[in-house]
TrEMBL record:
<keyword id="KW-0560">Oxidoreductase</keyword>
<feature type="transmembrane region" description="Helical">
    <location>
        <begin position="12"/>
        <end position="32"/>
    </location>
</feature>
<dbReference type="Pfam" id="PF07992">
    <property type="entry name" value="Pyr_redox_2"/>
</dbReference>
<keyword id="KW-0285">Flavoprotein</keyword>
<keyword id="KW-1133">Transmembrane helix</keyword>
<dbReference type="InterPro" id="IPR036188">
    <property type="entry name" value="FAD/NAD-bd_sf"/>
</dbReference>
<protein>
    <submittedName>
        <fullName>NAD(P)/FAD-dependent oxidoreductase</fullName>
    </submittedName>
</protein>
<keyword id="KW-0472">Membrane</keyword>
<feature type="domain" description="FAD/NAD(P)-binding">
    <location>
        <begin position="14"/>
        <end position="285"/>
    </location>
</feature>
<dbReference type="InterPro" id="IPR023753">
    <property type="entry name" value="FAD/NAD-binding_dom"/>
</dbReference>
<keyword id="KW-0812">Transmembrane</keyword>
<dbReference type="InterPro" id="IPR050097">
    <property type="entry name" value="Ferredoxin-NADP_redctase_2"/>
</dbReference>
Amino acid sequence: MSDAKNAAMNDSMYDVVVVGAGAAGLSAALVLGRARRRVAVVDAGTPRNAPAAHMHGFLSRDGMPPAALLEVGRAEVTGYGVELIEGRVDHIEPGFLVHLAGGPALRARRVLVATGLRDELPEIPGVRERWGRDLLHCPYCHAYEVRGEPIGVLGTHPNAVSQALLLQKWSADVVFFPHTLAVTDGERERLAARGVRVIDGIIKRLVVDEDRVRGVELAEGSVVPRSAVFVFPHMLPRDALLTDLGCERDENGWVTTDPSGRTSVPGLWAVGNVADPRAQVITAAGMGSAAAIAIDHDLVNEEVARDVEDYRTAEAKSPASLRPIAHAVSLEEHRA
């Protein structure tokens, strides 16, 4: 390859391409931008928490709309020279070439994937329409806002019993609807001991009136009044970009990473909900920051190794017999 072509390719190469501009991706981009790295962030504009009006548990940002956090984050990273690209990454080639759907390919020395996950909701009428409003998932994110109210928990996931037991801290009136979930005698005893009522029967729909959940209707016709309902969704990571590159998975099918987010593929990191379904917004932001620092160290190590090799090559090309003469000449010039 010619020196001119090599220089042109280097000019067009990013130190890091970040895929996903949620809290994890933007936090990583912020740290990398401040580290004077050339960074591009590619985002399709479909954050997981888009239906939620507010986010909670983020120190200094409690109650802030998720969209507002991302707007501030985008402004901050662009202030450090980070490039924001609207689009979807179709696939990534080893090496790395990050191919945009219907667009160009971005060359990157390192790639950080922060594409999150998608929530698979039960096919119960009213669930999808009320998702993120008064049909909720995370107690730590939303239960405080419905504290003391009549709460229902849908038995559509194996973790639903644990969710119901947890929610009793926020309300003394919690009803668990097993629906199609097989609940053991031991689980029923725990629910009863906790003061959680169990109402059996197939769920027909959520009752909605005046743009609010009013209850849970069972197939036999009865309606149990509720003002908030919780569901534990099936969480599916958006990890095709990672698995297509050969990233290892754990026994639950999630891509494995070290504490910094480094995957089993050299040069590839994964942070946020794509790697950890339990990560909240503040957790994901911390994961992005930790990954950015690890990536920068990784790049510096690569650069130092390259610089040492270049230094040794230059030293080897410089005849040893000329170095003392050059030194002597410089001394004579100094005396003159």
